[in-house]
């Protein structure tokens, strides 16, 4: 019975794929966001992950660990413009990398380029390092986090497809760590839960009551010292005039008193001899 001519060429390929799949260690670790107490856990274009410490313990020491950032399924993006409807854009479904992620597409390929994410590249790979930079156990004082989206200089540089550039929208995103020995995947973690970024509030939704109160407070703060100075000057003037009146009244009162005492003494001196006579 004649065999199909492609059967002989397909069999080695299937065996190679089975061997590769068998050699890939699937680790139960799930990437998680850093503690909220750290500050800046998520922004409008970045998020912070815990480092995968004590996770890749059985991979070769020269294997490179990559962070994979992908869009989950069910997302929509903005396509071309509707004909005859101005700037209204047609929503288009974005390709999803999570359900059927292909580990054989390595970093730097067009399908894993940051500059094409998420429209033409459903995932990109960045923050490559070796297991030496994820020491185990953790030591006190070490920086145990990774900030995703912190580079701005390479955002449009197509010669750096593994750029750790700002994320293009609020998400959600899902991430995993993938270890490659050369171009061969040797270990991977599970996918994270969906990570949503913060959204910027439009100017129209911002209340203007706060700035108006602030301006009023500034004006009141400027006027209040002037009013206090005027009040203090008026109080000092009142005290000066009141003091002058008190001094004048005292001299007019004591002067007749001195005369009265003088007349009394004189009368007493002249009456005394008369009494003796």
Q: In summary, what is this structure?
A:
It is built from 2 helices and 9 strands. With 277 residues, it is of the alpha+beta class. Keywords: Membrane, Signal, Transmembrane, Transmembrane helix.
The CATH architecture classification of the largest domain is: Sandwich
Name of the level-1 CATH class of the largest domain: Mainly Beta
- The tally of beta strands, per DSSP, is 9
Instruction: Please identify the structural class as seen in this structure.
Output: alpha+beta
Kindly estimate the percentage of residues that lie in beta strands according to DSSP.
15-25%
Provide mean pLDDT, rounded: 77
Total of DSSP H or I helical runs spanning 4+ residues: 2
How many domains is the backbone divided into?
A: 2
Shape annotation: elongated
Unreliable residue stretches = 11-22, 250-262
What name does the CATH topology of the largest domain carry? Immunoglobulin-like
How far the N terminus sits from the C terminus, by CA atoms, comes to 182 Å
Radius of gyration: 44 Å
Q: How can the largest sheet be summarized?
A: 5 strands, mixed
Helix content: 25-40%
What would you give as the CATH superfamily of the largest domain?
Answer: Immunoglobulins
Order of helix and strand elements from N to C terminus: HEEEEEEEEEH
Q: Strands across the major sheet, in which order?
A: 1-9-8-3-6
Signal peptide: 1-23
InterPro entries: Uroplakin-3
Keywords: Membrane, Signal, Transmembrane, Transmembrane helix
Transmembrane segments: 217-241
């Amino acid at each position: 019975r004649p065999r199909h001519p492609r059967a002989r060429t397909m069999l080695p390929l299937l065996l190679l794929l089975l061997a590769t799949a068998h050699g890939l260690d699937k680790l139960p670790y799930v990437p998680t966001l850093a503690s909220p107490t750290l500050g800046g856990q998520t922004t409008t274009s970045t998020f912070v992950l815990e480092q995968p410490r004590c996770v890749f313990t059985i991979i070769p020491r020269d294997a490179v660990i990559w962070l994979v950032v992908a869009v989950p399924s069910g997302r929509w993006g903005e396509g071309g413009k509707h004909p005859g409807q101005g700037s209204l854009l047609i929503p288009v479904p974005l390709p999803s990398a999570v359900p059927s992620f292909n580990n054989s597409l390595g970093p730097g390929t067009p399908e894993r380029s940051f500059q094409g994410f998420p429209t033409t590249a459903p995932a990109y790979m960045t923050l490559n390092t070796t297991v030496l930079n994820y020491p185990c156990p953790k030591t006190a004082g070490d920086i145990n986090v990774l900030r995703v989206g912190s580079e701005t200089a390479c955002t449009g540089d197509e010669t750096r497809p593994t750029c750790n550039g700002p994320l293009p929208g609020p998400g959600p995103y899902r991430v995993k760590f993938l270890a490659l020995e050369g171009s061969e995947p040797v270990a991977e973690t599970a996918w994270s839960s969906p990570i949503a970024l913060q959204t910027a509030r439009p100017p129209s939704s911002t209340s203007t009551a706060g700035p108006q109160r602030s301006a009023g407070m500034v004006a009141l703060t400027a006027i209040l010292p002037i009013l206090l100075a005027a009040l203090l000057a008026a109080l000092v003037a009142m005290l000066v005039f009141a003091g002058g009146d008190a001094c004048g009244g005292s001299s007019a009162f004591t002067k007749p008193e001195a005369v009265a005492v003088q007349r009394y003494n004189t009368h007493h001196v002249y009456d005394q001899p008369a009494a003796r006579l």
